[in-house]
Amino acid sequence: MNPTYDFTGQVALVTGASSGMGLATARAFAEAGASVVLADINQAAVTSATDALAGDGHQVLAVRCDVADEDQVAAMVAATVDRFGRLDMAFNNAGIQLPVSDAADEPAEAFDRVTAINLRGVWACMKHELKVMRSQGSGAIVNCSSLGGLVGNPGRAAYHATKHGVLGLTSSAALEYAPRGVRINAVCPGTIATPMVADMLATGELDLEQALANQPINRLGEAEEIAAAVLWLCSPGASFIIGVALPVDGGYTAR
Predict the structure, then answer these.
(1) Hey, what CATH topology would domain 11-193+223-245 get?
(2) Of 1, 182, 199, 253, whose CB neighbour count within 10 A is largest?
(3) Is 177 known to be catalytic?
(4) Domain extent listing, the chain
(5) Which DSSP state fits 181?
(6) Are 247 and 217 within 8 A, CB to CB?
(7) Residues in domain Ketoreductase (predicted)?
(8) pTM passes above 0.85
(9) Catalytic-labelled residue, pool 5, 159, 177, 252
(10) Hey, CA dihedral for 93, 33, 182, 130, is it positive or negative?
């Protein structure tokens, strides 16, 4: 059973919030009493997800945002403050995967695209969230890295580079902002049962048997398990946790 939190009166922002880990985390924040901004590049999907939460009585706002565009990120954070007056917690989750590629054959366009979303997008989100939290003197940010931020894998050089980069952003900013009352950490999910992973399995890009073998717990993770880690990192229970890269990977990186 997961711990319960009371985030009443607080405001959370989640990117990549229309499905998977983002939606599970947005829902968990809302169920814990927070007002939640759900942001995603897919307007229809994020509006549908937000409408469902609103129908359950939660205070929510849908924002279309391409995190690769800093102007859109700035507008997303501004919309959050305009609607709810503050920003207390953020889960910078938006990201993409690339097809497996030999490092010698990876197109520059693919590298630029995954970097723009997975790394520059996290940088832009954190930058504009911190502007608000700096003035408040409080806040908690969780960036989404990956087990790919902790290890390497053949065929994944560009993707793993972005996820390693997220950890560098996280630890450096965490040291800078801990004295100012803002805690910054990262989660490193393993292979989680999300629409992205389902697509990879369907196309043969990911082998289920191998994925299970790589996680000693012998199953895929659930999006709600990532949400539980994010909420803990944002809660008073993690008040002394600064700059960590928390594996939530069924034991993958414990080998």
Answers:
(1) Rossmann fold (3.40.50)
(2) 182
(3) no
(4) 11-193+223-245
(5) T
(6) no
(7) 10-190
(8) yes
(9) 159
(10) positive
